[in-house]
């Protein structure tokens, strides 16, 4: 599991990224905003970002959702 920190509105939040290799998915959780999502690990980078933005946009403005999605995908792809 990866644990990263993300900042928004002067708040620092933890982002938890768990990879389930057997089911080929990532579980992404941001407890500070009561948000979680399962994303298929078979998606390409652009599709993964789009999926994250769509779901984050329900709680955040578009700019913040896009910023979060970019950071999360970057963290998922790093070794």
TrEMBL record:
It holds the Pfam family YueH. InterPro entries: Uncharacterised_YueH (IPR020260). This is YueH-like family protein. It comes from Staphylococcus shinii.
